[in-house]
Structure formats: C-alpha cells, structure tokens
Amino acid sequence: MSYTDIITVDPAKRGGKPCIRGLRITVYDVLESLASGMTHEQILAEFPYLTREDIQACLAFAADRERKLEISHA
Question: How many structural domains comprise the chain?
C-alpha cells in the first residue's frame, strides 16, 4: 500500500494539512510525536484509531516531500 492511499488532503479539515485517512490527525502530529521520542507503541496507545501502516505512511510522505524539495532546489 502506498502512502497516497492513507494520507489525504481536504481543505475543509485542519486547514488543508495532510491528514491520515481523512481523520483530524495530521502527518505533522505523528512526525512530531516520533521526533519527541515516542515509540510506535506509545503513539498507537495515544491515538488508538491509528495503525502501524498509518505511521509508516507518515514517514513515507515526509521522505517523499523531502526528496521533492531536494529536486526543486537542484
């Protein structure tokens, strides 16, 4: 499954920020939790409606966005 099947953008939700499966939790929320040192298990406990695939999709989305930034600055 590609992150594009999980990450959604809806202008009516969270100001159009990339969200997980149309929920109100953003990719940023998950990445911030990981960056603060939370484990996947802790994130899943805090947000029980998320899955491991959702977390992986957030990481893949961030990696792809970073790759696109590098290409645009080349």
Answer: 1
